[in-house]
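Form P-L/3: holo structure prediction, ligand adenosine-5'-diphosphate.
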Amino acid sequence: MTDNDLHTGDRADLWRDYLRQKCRKQLAEIGREWPHNRSLYIDYKVVERWGKEGIALADEILENPGKVIEDIRDALENNTLIKTADNQPIKKDAINIRIKGVTRKVLLRDLRAQGVGKFISVEGTMSRISFVLPRLKEAVFKCPAGHFTKKYIHHGKYVEPTGCSTDGCTFKKLDLIPKRSTYTDSQIGQLQELPEYQKPGEIPHHILIDVEDDLCGQIPAVGRLTVNGILKSTQRIVRGEKSATFDLYIEVSSIEREQKSFSEIEITEEDETAILALAKDPDILTKISQSIVPAISGYDDEKKGLALQIFSAKQAVHVQMNKVLRGSIHIMLAGDPGIAKSTMIRLLAQMIPRAIYISGTSGITSAGLTYAMRQDGFDNRWVVEPGAAPQADESQLFVDEIAEMEAGDIMALNGILEEQKINFAKAGMVGELNTRCATTVAMNPKGGRFDSCAPLADQIPKKIPPQLLSRFDLIYLMQDTVNLTKDAKDASHILGLWSGNDYQFEVNPPIPALMVKKFIAFMKRQPNPILNPQARKRLMDEFLELRKQSENGTVAITKRALEALVRLATAHCLMRGGKEVALQDAEISIKTHRYSMAQTSTDPATGKFDADKVSGHTKEKRNRASTILEILRNQGGKCTREVIYREMAVKDMSVTKEKIDIILDQMAQEGAILEPKAGVVKIA
Ligand code: ADP
Ligand code: MG
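OUTPUT (holo model):
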């Protein structure tokens, strides 16, 4: 017996004692639930604190995990620590020994060849993940004489035996017998370092992870996680040739999910008292909206919309009616350049845990908005790489410069916003990714600047399909109009930002940043409230009132807008910590919604809501277009613009030359009229 054996023996006994003392309950559970439950979890933190040997055992886990796992397996088998329900001992290889709770984390970018064989714990997010596939565990081979040879296949590598294992048999060429071999589930993925460790202008570091058996399918495709496992290396194969370079990967022992989004913020009892007191404030919406992006001055109404969006209800399902209810409030900020749209949403994304900011012009991940399918270098299988929207699931997504995005991504937004999931079917893989993220998009109008008289649709870049607009609960048109009082206010605020910490701002955020975060986190943990009868009636009345304003032909407000009203009211209820959506929530919702409607859907000529204005066909304009055609017909099908102005003035005093020009241009664009030479129009 060598020293080493003695040492091993010692440790197996120590582990036996440890398992008996610390894992009794788990061992009994595995026995009862076998084979469904077949993983024993060893908590590093508990081992470390276990008696006087704990620290040595814990150190050994980090330094020599392969041996520790064997020791633990020996301890299990030699002492029959696990018995099945019908009192059968379980073979040691049939139990996965998984280690969790390792406190010392390594940075992904610090992983080097020296660490190979050691136990490591790294944090990151999954950038790709494959489907679960069977992997050979024990391969059975047959030689021409009919002898069987068994070979244990290690992670990823398939190596054939050098010859038949039967004594006296000299056959070298053996055939794999798939039916006799045993398999285990396997899954591979790519772990990417956390954004806070990524350096600007550098490609994020990542590492392959290899998962087996019952851990397959447990890896969250989105969100932060900790991966514990053994660092391994595998020889890179380049075009079928073995290369001198080795790739590192982690043979995963256990994963720990980071708590989801807002729930990771710690709230003490004192915080809770303060939060509940704050929630009683009758004007909590104003207070929160003034505190979320204090660096930006003005935009009181837009900020209210954005504040309500943060409190969007969770996706729910009406079970009896089998209907998915979207709680996410989606917002579009369309406006002139240089008015802080980008800055505002960037700051918001920083404040909200797990929120993602992307821009059509830069900073988009390689998987784009949706997902990408790639073939992995490890064992050539296809993997799904979630894009920005699935990564923002259960948080918020901010898409800047949306009109600059690829056409495919813009189309995909329809599904992301309404169904809140993306389906994929590619390379033989079918699946779906959740995108339950409240989404804000920002863009500049087509001509660079907005014209408040022209319909919104005419100013929205062609790439944005009109039906996409109806997905937004709130659309804000932000115009850079000159208003010297307001300009002076904004200017002193911006200059103040450059004036050091002692500068006294005119407006200060009523709630400090950390408290805002805690407040949001606390309220978002509450269950979704439901509509009470008063709120229901108020929203119904508002809906019918708006419908009434529409005259025959135009549709002032769509049914989608009714749902927007509900979502806004529900968010306000969550914001004030209410249990049911009440009248006061309905009132706020209506006010917020009307502000947005007034900008996008009011016909400038009549002052009435007209949902068709968003899509570019107001009833008023349709009437005018037909009047123009009538004039043209009376003039023999062709006349100058001057004649049209004159004739229109006779029929309709309210219409200006400029407006007629807009209508004529649009008719020409739509092909209703031709302009054979400047200033002359003709029926097409
Ligand atoms: P946009 O995306 O609308 O084109 P940006 O977000 O790039 O505009 O803003 C341009 C600059 O002007 C930013 O530095 C922004 O901070 C500043 N700015 C514009 N309006 C305001 C405002 N109301 N308050 C604070 N800063 C502002
Ligand atoms: Mg911008």
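COMMENT: Residues 226 and 592 are 41 Å apart (CA to CA).
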